[in-house]
Amino acid sequence: MSRLLHISASPRGAESISLAIARTFTDEYLATHPGSTVDHFDLWDGTLPEFGPAAAHAKMTVFGGGTPQGEQAQAWAAAVRTFERFDSYDRYLFSVPMWNSGVPYKLKQFIDVVSQPAMVFDVHPETGYRGLVTGKRAAVVYTSAVWGPGLGPEFGLDFQSTFFEEWLKWAGIADVQAVRHHPTLTGSYEHERKQADERAREIARTF
Hints:
Blueprint (H helix, E strand, L loop, with lengths): L2 E6 L8 H16 L4 E6 L10 H11 L6 H18 L3 E7 L7 H10 L6 E4 L3 E4 L5 E7 L16 H12 L3 E7 L7 H17 L2
Parallel strand pairs: 1-2, 1-3, 3-6, 6-7
Antiparallel strand pairs: 4-5
Helix pairs in contact: 1-6, 2-3
C-alpha cells in the first residue's frame, strides 16, 4: 500500500483554506485507498531544523568529499533526518498558500534543508543537475486571495507555483498535479471553493 505525506506550509490552523482543501484530498484518498497511510508534516510544528552557518559549512564539506565534524556534523545529521523522513514516502501532498507572490518562508526552509547532494540531487560538470527523488508522485494545493489567473501585475505575480513546481521537477518528481483556489477580491469564494474541493477529490481518487 502507498504512503502519503502531507506537507503543510500554512501556520493558520483551522482558518487555513489550503489546509481545509488538503483535508478534502486526504479524506477522499483514505476512502478510496484502503490500507494506505497518510501522515502530516506541519512545517510550523518546530521540528524543521534551521539551515544556518554550521549546516552550510557542512554541505560544502560534503561537496568536497569530506566528513562534517562537531557542530557541523550535528547540523548535517538534522538535515539528513529531515530528508530521510521526506524520502520514506512514495506520495506527497503539499498545501501552499501564496505569500507576497511566492511561497511561505517555511516551505523555502524545508527545500533548503532537504536539497542536499546525493540525497535530492547530484551534479556533473558536463551534464549538470540530476534529480534523485524519482518514482514518486505529488499533488499541490495552491491558494491565494488577491492574485488570480488572468489578472494584471497590479494584483501580484505567480512566483508561487512556478518556483515550487520547478523545484519538484529539479528534484526528480515529474508526476505533479495541482489543485488551485484563487477566488480573488471580487470573485465568488463559494464557487471557487466548490471547484477546488471537487478537483481535490478527483485527483485523490486516482493518486
